[in-house]
Amino acid sequence: MYVIVTTVQTFRHRYCIPVEELRRLNLEVEATNSDLLNWARDEVTMEEVKEFSQEHLGEQIIDSRIMTQEETLQLFDEDNSYLRSWTPEQKIRYLDSWQDNRA
What we know:
Elements: E1 2-15, H1 19-25, H2 33-45, E2 51-67, H3 69-79, H4 88-96
Antiparallel strand pairs: 1-2
């Protein structure tokens, strides 16, 4: 039996775009502040802006449950499809070495 804990980590990201560059990309329109904000959001959504800064806001636990070994191995394959070729013994050995020794 294994306990599965599901979490989500949250980061705050900021991006910075010069207003003149946004205007240059949209010369055909007389831009309002609302237009500039929308264009900037579009650029970020399209992943065309390098990151200005980020801050880790924490990790939140979403759920937890107890699963049988068989259920856990099935979840292992679903979540780690690139490791499906591992034998059940290799997967169990990985699961049983659960402690993060980086601390």
